[in-house]
Every structure is written in structure tokens, then in C-alpha cells.
Amino acid sequence: MRILLLGSDISFADKVFDSALKNGWNINHVKDLIAARLALLETSYSIVLIDNDLSSKFGLNLLRNMRAQYDVTPVLITAESCKVSERITWIDAGADDYLLKPFEFDELWARVRAVTRRSEGRMVPLITWGDIEIDVVKRSVTRAGKPVRLSDHEYRILLTLMQGKGHVVGHEHLEAMMYDGAATIESNTLAVHICQVRRKLGAGIITTAYGQGYLMANPC
């Protein structure tokens, strides 16, 4: 089993790391949102653990973005807070389980095993628009059956527009999906990436709604 741990509490992370190794599991610890996003892009994980000692905004941003991108990797939250409202927020955002500190590691790993077992039967649909198809598990794009190589930002733009189902998607929403709010965006960055998507998929595939945003053109 390969585990990604997101959290800023080094002492807690070290304990989780040591316990995971004793169980023969690989674990990668990252301390911020950008590192977590890169880790998920580079590696397929069995489960993501988010320690809520990290600012909940960052953890929630990661979780919500994962689910928006149809990433069904199980997510388990660990936290000291016992507020019902906070647990509900995480569960509604797509978390699979929520474990209060302090806890025994045997319980943590039992919950990890249970969550990963439940996730094995999940089905993720292919996203299609005309002859364009996105496999959200493989993060691959094809047009008319032929593979199209997109950068991460280009992929996120295309997926977000296709999720819009022909409706206008605003500039701010597209930028938020590209960067998770974790970077300063230059004024022309979105337009540059849109241009690249058009170049790779066809100039008429994306329509500009001037002053509003972009939308997928009606498929032929």
C-alpha cells in the first residue's frame, strides 16, 4: 500500500511514518498544498491522509479539487477537533473517514484498510464531449480515438470546460481550478493555456464568451 500524508506537524508525521513502515507500507509525507498536488500527479496512492493540524483551508482545497477532478483516491482526515460541524464539512467535501486524536495506530490502520476496501469497487465515468474523451483515472485525453498530450494546466482547463456541459465557465473559476488558489496568476496566463488547448484539439473546440469566460463549442 502506498500512502500520501499531508500535514505540518512533523512529530505526528514521524510517528505515522514509523508505524506505516512497520506494517510494510510505503508512505510519502508532504507539508503543503503544492507538494501534495505534485505528489498526486506523479504517483498513484492507495489513500491520502490529511492531518487537520494543517490549515483546514489547504486540506479542504486539496480534497475538493481531487473530487472535482474525479480523483476517487480515498481520503482519511485526522484531527484533534471534535466539532460536529467540522466533521460534516470534511465529509461533505468528499472525505471517506474522520478520526479524532489521540488514537491508537492499530485503529488508524484498521480504518485505512476498511476505507481502501470500500473504494475498490468505485466506478469513474469517462468524460466525453463530441469525439473528445477524458479518462480521469489515467488523466489521458483522446480526440477521435487519437491520444492528445496536454500539460497539467491544459488538462485541468479542458476537464473544467467539459464539466460545464456547454455553459460558460468564468475566468476566475478556471483559474481556481488550474492553481487551487495557491499561486499568483498573471493576467494573460489563462488565455495562453486556452490557446494551447485550441492548438492541440482544434481552433473551434473552445468558444470565447467575451467579458465572461469560455465554453465548449457544440460538438458536430
Automatic annotation (TrEMBL):
Residues 124-218 bind DNA. GO terms for cellular component: cytosol; protein-DNA complex. The lineage of its organism: Bacteria, Pseudomonadati, Pseudomonadota, Betaproteobacteria, Burkholderiales. Residues 124-218 form the OmpR/PhoB-type domain. It is found in: Cytoplasm. PROSITE patterns: OMPR_PHOB, RESPONSE_REGULATORY. This is DNA-binding response regulator. It comes from Janthinobacterium agaricidamnosum. SMART domains: REC, Trans_reg_C. Keywords: Cytoplasm, DNA-binding, Phosphoprotein, Transcription, Transcription regulation, Two-component regulatory system. It comes from the Bacteria. GO terms for biological process: regulation of DNA-templated transcription. One of its GO terms (molecular function) is phosphorelay response regulator activity. InterPro entries: CheY-like_superfamily (IPR011006), OmpR/PhoB-type_DNA-bd (IPR001867), Sig_transdc_resp-reg_C-effctor (IPR016032), Sig_transdc_resp-reg_receiver (IPR001789), WalR-like (IPR039420), WH-like_DNA-bd_sf (IPR036388).
